[in-house]
């Protein structure tokens, strides 16, 4: 029997998990979600959602992964509850589904890195985005992004994922910090900070039906909870590691990067006079194109080659972040086939990458399809998977979950019991409420919200 891979170091696991969390969800999705959901109102609810739902659910996935020491589907069989294996399957399917359109956006990022390097993107950002967001070129770049992802995953846990994320994660933080300092110097950025950072409780109460589920979905998406990714990553951990300490480190780091990305993007948009909340931000490509069009427009006024340099740095950062997450989404699927069927890692990654590429072709050819895939993934797959994980860990695993959380920690801390009862009550009810709001929006108010159930053109 082939010995199962493990992380070479604890730091490698933490950086890989942070890398999974710190991706397009933070730098692409978070700023436009914040901008189109009330700025500070969305940020406030998002931070509460990370604390109340995200971190407890993240620890729940860690417990399942390390206690079983195997992939997300087989984990439930290993834990003696085979009837619950469908939970892991939903998460794995969610990873598969999400990566199909995530890779398309990764292809856009590659094209924008080139566009800034050559300078061609600066003449007409909206038209440039329209020309690269959908069509044969977008499909080709989608294939290129998947090829890079497959290559890293094919190299394995230690030589591929761990090695790559040790470079990627520090690079993302350093580059975003530099960009945030630059954005701070721009005239007009102050209005962006006020919009982003000044708490607006009235905006939360007046728009709770849309802001709350959007913020909760973003919190889960950005933490990579619900994709079976964290179950998979934790399955490579040893018993000496503190899941609580690691989970808090990952959540805090991820949230820091998300907030930092907002401190880059939103001041840039305000400094360029780009409208937020009046349709100006999301014109051309909808919300999916907001960061691409908005940031490029904001940088176009810089003198000389400065716009090109800053643009390459920004979208280069986004590209690194996108890859750090895409490899985790693919690993969640690869690990199941490698563990259960003893398949070779490299051809398995290549085969799955090909299927995921084909699934993503509609999103590459039409941004309406990408929006539909994103809506199904974030509004249905994600909260359903998280709800089931929390239900399983809280009420089925119970005492075993507490025992696992205590492994690697000193003393008989009461924190695991507090966490367990939090899962059983507050977290479970909060996710149930988010699910109810999502279903209401998707099924009962198609004319008022984002209606994703019927595919585009049908």
From TrEMBL:
Coiled-coil intervals: none
InterPro entries in the record: Na/ntran_symport, SNS_sf, YocR/YhdH-like
Native source species: Halomarina rubra
Keywords, comma-separated and alphabetical: Membrane, Transmembrane, Transmembrane helix, Transport
GO CC annotation terms, alphabetical: membrane
Protein name according to UniProt: Sodium-dependent transporter
Membrane topology, from the record: Multi-pass membrane protein
The organism's place on the tree of life at top rank: Archaea
Spans traversing the lipid bilayer: 7-28, 40-64, 84-104, 139-157, 169-191, 211-236, 248-274, 312-338, 350-373, 380-398, 418-440
Localisation per UniProt entry: Membrane
């Amino acid at each position: 029997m082939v010995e199962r891979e493990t992380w070479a170091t604890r730091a490698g696991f933490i950086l890989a998990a942070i890398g999974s969390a710190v991706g397009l969800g933070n730098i692409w999705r978070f700023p436009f979600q914040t901008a189109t959901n009330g700025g500070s109102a969305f940020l406030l609810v998002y931070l509460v959602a990370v604390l109340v739902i995200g971190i407890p659910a993240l620890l729940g996935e860690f417990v399942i992964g390390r206690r079983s020491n195997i992939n997300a589907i087989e984990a439930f069989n290993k834990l003696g509850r085979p009837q619950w294996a469908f939970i892991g399957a939903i998460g794995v399917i969610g990873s598969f589904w999400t990566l199909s359109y995530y890779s398309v956006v990764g292809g856009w990022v590659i094209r924008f890195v080139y566009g800034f390097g050559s300078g061609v993107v600066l003449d007409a950002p909206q038209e440039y985005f329209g020309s690269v967001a959908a069509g044969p070129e977008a499909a080709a770049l989608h294939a290129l992004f998947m090829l890079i992802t497959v290559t890293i995953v094919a190299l394995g846990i230690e030589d591929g994922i761990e090695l790559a994320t040790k470079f990627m994660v520090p690079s993302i933080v350093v580059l975003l910090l530099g960009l945030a300092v630059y954005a701070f110097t721009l005239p007009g950025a102050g209005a962006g900070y006020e919009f982003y950072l000044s708490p607006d409780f009235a905006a939360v109460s007046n728009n709770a039906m849309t802001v709350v589920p959007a913020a909760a979905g973003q919190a889960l998406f950005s933490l990579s909870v619900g994709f079976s990714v964290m179950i998979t990553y934790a399955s490579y951990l040893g018993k000496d590691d503190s899941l609580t300490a690691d989970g808090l480190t990952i959540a805090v780091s991820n949230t820091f990067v998300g907030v930092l990305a907002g401190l880059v993007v939103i001041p840039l948009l305000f400094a360029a006079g780009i409208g937020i909340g009046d349709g100006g931000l999301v014109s051309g490509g909808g919300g999916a194109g907001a960061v691409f069009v908005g940031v490029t427009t904001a940088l176009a006024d810089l003198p000389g080659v400065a716009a090109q340099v800053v643009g390459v740095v920004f979208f280069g950062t986004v590209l690194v972040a996108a890859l750090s997450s895409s490899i985790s989404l693919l690993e969640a699927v690869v690990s199941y086939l490698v563990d259960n069927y003893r398949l070779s890692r490299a051809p398995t990654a290549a085969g799955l990458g090909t299927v995921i590429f084909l699934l993503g072709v509609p999103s590459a050819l039409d941004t309406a399809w990408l929006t539909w895939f994103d809506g199904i993934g974030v509004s249905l797959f994600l909260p359903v998977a998280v709800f089931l994980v929390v239900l399983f860990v809280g009420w089925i695993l119970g005492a075993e979950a507490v025992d696992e959380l205590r492994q690697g920690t000193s003393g008989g801390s009461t924190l695991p019991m507090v966490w367990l009862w939090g899962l059983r009550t507050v977290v479970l009810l909060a996710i149930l409420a988010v699910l109810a709001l999502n279903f209401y929006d998707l099924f009962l108010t198609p004319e008022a919200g984002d209606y994703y159930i019927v595919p585009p053109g049908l």
